[in-house]
Amino acid sequence: MVERTRIIPKEKPPRDPEPRTRFQRGVDMITNFANVGKDILGQTGTSMADYFNAVSSNRDNNRAALLKDAGRFLPNQAYLTGEFLGDVAQLPFEALGQRYIDPNIGSGYGKGDLFFDSDDELNKFKYNQFMDDYVFDTATDVANNPSFQNYLRGQGLNIPDQGFDIYSDIFNLGDLFRDVEKNPYTQDEERFLGDFKKVLNNPESPFFVSQKFDKEGNLRMAEDGTNPYEQDVLNALNFFYDTKEAEFIDQYFPDYMQSQYPQMVEGLARELNISPLTAQMFMDKGGEPLGFLERDLGLLNDMFAFEDPLLNYETSEGQALFGDDFTMNMLGGLGTYGLARNLMTKGNRLLPKRAASFVENLYPATFSKRIPLGGGDGMKFTSLPRGVAQTGGAVLFPEYFHDTPNYLERPDGLDLTVQLPTTE
Predict the structure, then answer these.
(1) Does residue 408 belong to any structural domain of this protein?
(2) How big is the CA angle at 172 (ends 168 and 176), to the nearest 5 degrees?
(3) Counted domains in the chain
């Protein structure tokens, strides 16, 4: 039960004795990316084979539902692609709104933590140093923490300003080995010792001490006297007290952690100059390096968020192939790009003329604009160079000569809760 008093479920990662160079980290990233690509293609083949086997064998009499799932794929992809293009289209407007109106506009502020290097040695050092203040190995460590003592005071417990001790201040126990003829036990002490005697003589109890056999199961010898037995009883008493102390901590620790966790997240965010959302993900991974999507992406949060499909898939095989598979989603998005673009073009015609013209010039390739060459000739506009520059400019624009921090203290959707480790 003492183990529950560990605030951080995961052990801190060991520090590398020889930090990797930036070149080696780049090589590792390329290698890992290639391996991930192989895994993705392999998973696509597995999902596809499982789906068609289910269709051909009419698995669980689900052939009709499986075929319906296939029919849902293209509408879903058109919807999700349109959602993605809409997220891209709104970026410049959100950036302008953050810069001149309200920093809270949009799904995140500016560039967020796009460039946060969670594998940097300095960031890992700062993380470990910060988390050291929130790791408790024993119930006594928790009890000695001033913040926890303040929390207990808030719960109505009488906690002294100095020298707090659960033994005396909570259990009301004094020296149990005093001369009781001169100073008899109090009712609390009698109750505590009575509970201990019950478990001491119970063979099913972890505090049981046999008068006949020692802890190793060896027969106690008369020539050894009573000292070995008395020492075992003393050890059992200490174990009993430690357990009671841990049980007391367990009554308050979960709610205490719930109250402290937001402060931990926001404190780590300030320490590393990252958003609380990124800080929470970093803490949840125990300081391990974050993936690209495991961070606050600022204005790009909406763009990279996993949206729910328009039509839900009925079968697990359909969900695995059409809903969850990366390759299928990528191919489906490319295949339905033209349809989504046509819908955007039609929607733009409903805007006032000046607004529609502004949007067309903002996204010329989407609306088939051409670069004029004179004499009525023109060159097809390619969106890639301008698109990259435009997106980058949009996410950086709110922070350009702006005194607003690059994160909100408590962004919407941040789940500031902690999952405590379970104990047997």
Answers:
(1) no
(2) 80
(3) 2
